[in-house]
Amino acid sequence: MIGWFTDPYPDELLYSACARFHERTQYSNKKFTLLRLFGTTNSTAIIDFPCRLRSFIAALPPCHSYSDDKLINEQTLLPFFSAFLPCERVSQLREDMKGNGGLTIHRRLGVMASRITTPIWLRFCPLCREADRSHYGETYWHRLHQLSGVLVCPIHNVFLENSHARRNSARDILRFVAADDALPAQYLDPSDSTHRILLMLARDAAWLFEHPNEIRPQCFI
Questions:
Q1: Which of 96, 116, 136 marks a domain boundary?
Q2: pTM value?
Q3: What are the residue ranges of helices labelled H in the chain?
Q4: Do 54 and 24 fall into the same domain?
Q5: Same-domain status, 62 and 93
Q6: Does residue 110 sit in the same domain as residue 25?
Q7: Which residue of 58, 101, 149, 203 pairs with 154 in a disulfide if CB–CB is 3.0 to 4.6 A?
Q8: Are 18 and 111 within one domain?
């Protein structure tokens, strides 16, 4: 059991909260963070669909307010995909994430065969970064910004930027990377039809994250 864990911020990936935990504890061995949080060193730092969530919940300090379903709903990408999947598959995916689903999760989702390219880098909105630092004193990885196909921020109407943190690095699969420094904002052009479509897609994706139970309520606990 760990003595503390930082509360995730709104729309923050669980990966991001774990990266902040790792940064503040200053563990010299990357595997030790995985061992402390997930009870194993035979795992990786997963960005989109983390697993072993039951072990993670069991490692938290007493009197915490988390549950595995709450983490799935608020700190992972599954609610977006759930809107397009059969209920029985969503239920199985949730069980995979609570247990040791590993690569099974991505196979069930079909993302491995998808024609939509997964971003190479973790992404951010430079204006969200400024707002986060003003409000919270630090920035973090927003889950909406990591969705394939979402290229703009629906809050600030600017393009997302690539960070210096690779999303999938064979050399650093154990590493939790905290949010990096950003680049200048690239604003959308309201007169550009492509920009308007990108903004609409981002807003729709944000709506799915904010209203998971309004799509298929029978799929959720």
A1: 116
A2: 0.83
A3: 14-25, 30-38, 53-59, 68-75, 78-82, 87-98, 103-109, 126-136, 193-210
A4: yes
A5: yes
A6: yes
A7: 203
A8: yes
